[in-house]
Amino acid sequence: MTSKLEQKETPQANGAVLPIVPGDCLASPERGQRPEPSDFLGPDGTGVEVVVLESRANAKGVREEDALLENGSQSNESDDTSTDRGPEPSSPLKETSFSIGLQVLFPFLLAGFGTVAAGMVLDIVQHWDVFKYVTEVFILVPALLGLKGNLEMTLASRLSTAANIGQMDTPKELWKMITGNMALIQVQATVVGFLASIAAVVFGWIPDGHFSIDHAVLLCASSVATAFIASLVLGMIMIGVIIGSRKMGINPDNVATPIAASLGDLITLALLSGISWGLYKELESKAYVNPLVCAFFISLLPIWIVIAKRNSATREVLYSGWEPVIIAMAISSVGGLILDRTVSDPNFAGMAVFTPVINGVGGNLVAVQASRISTYLHMSGVPGDSPETTPRKCPSPCSTFFSSDVNSRSARVLFLLVVPGHLVFLYTISSMQGGHTTLTLIFIVFYMTAALLQVLILLYIADWMVHWMWGRDLDPDNFSIPYLTALGDLIGTGLLALSFHVLWLIGDRDSDVGD
Length: 515
What we know:
Acts as a magnesium transporter. Residues 141-275, 355-498 form the SLC41A/MgtE integral membrane domain. The protein is mainly α. The chain has one domain. Helices cover 68% and strands 2% of the residues. It contains 17 helices and two strands. It has helices spanning 56-67, 97-125, 129-133, 136-164, 171-208, 213-247, 252-281, 289-299, 301-310, 312-320, 322-342, 351-378, 397-401, 406-416, 418-431, 441-471, 476-505; strands at 8-11, 17-20. A hairpin with a 5-residue loop joins strand 1 and strand 2 (17-20). The longest helix is centred in the middle third of the chain and has 38 residues, at 171-208. The chain is globular and about 60 Å long. It starts with 7 loop residues before the first strand and ends in a 10-residue tail after the last helix.
């Protein structure tokens, strides 16, 4: 050789120091080039002892190509060749339309029956004294149901993504995820529940100009207590569902979010009704109970903040995750205002029982799609990356619903579930005589049109929003689902009210409304 070969020295585990050939002297096997024996001769023709160390970056690239599960947020220290690694999780994206539909069908029906049960509960409790004399509670219903849907489905989406990319494979990682996320949703539930009560008071005061301090404190205590207890119960259920799904070989993205939504609606509405009724009973004789309840749950906030702040998995969301849930709460409160103005009108009989159903089904389906797209993007990089599959502009409806990629396939499957699912739920409501309504053909046509239009709009917005947030360096698991479910509440309630109004104008409801 005409030039002297550069050598570097590196300490080994046994204390020996061996020279290393630089990486540019050794071509990789993938290039089809191999070093010649003469390349390893010194200037005097004698052999040089060479130790070739495998490039960490190349090893990492192989692992990333094989599993598509490299997490960009991991530190460089995690790239070592330690044998204490959990098994590589399998990719959940190799799915056919049939397998997607089969996995989504059961939790979708379970979620739907949960919303039917919530609608039946609302149909009953709307006649209670607390709903008659403190009508602002109706404004709280979509806000709190949407809040619980947002928090629990965002939790389910975060944990599903973490499970799919291998961040919950060891007991230590699992426990870290559980404690951090449980503390986080307690903080979010308490704060947003308090803000929801303020929004209910404001929206109730604006039209009538009437304000009662006792009713305001009652709304605050009921909202905060309901949000806190529901978060605790539903968060534990969600963790169990996701762990069980992984052990059974089921993609958590397909089952976790619908189950979260179904249980969230029923449990939250039952808690809100029971707590508000109990506090209303104590309002006259023990007026101090309501402020004490409100102060107790707010006083627990520092504890949950400290726990969530110490956990690296939730610290960022604790600081930056407020905007979507607060804006979503405000959007859902507008839907609650529509419900408050229509539920007591005889011309809108049935709104109370059908509103949770249409809103819940739409929110469930779009949450599944958003969670799947988010997982797909996390497998190709970290938020802020721009893979070729990420659209820069608003996608066309054809690319959202009729392309060959896996996300378009799942969008078609979810859209096709709307009509058969709602037919089952409508039959269930009718057989239980909910809503004092007889199902006629024209009513079913208008109802299905509203439901299909709602889901169509939501799936399209999800395709654009998730990719847009990803390109803006925002994690879609934390930011997209609150907006999408809140829009589902607003669009669903508005379209349903419009359908009832049109049906009343053409006279179809006159013979169908009971006393």
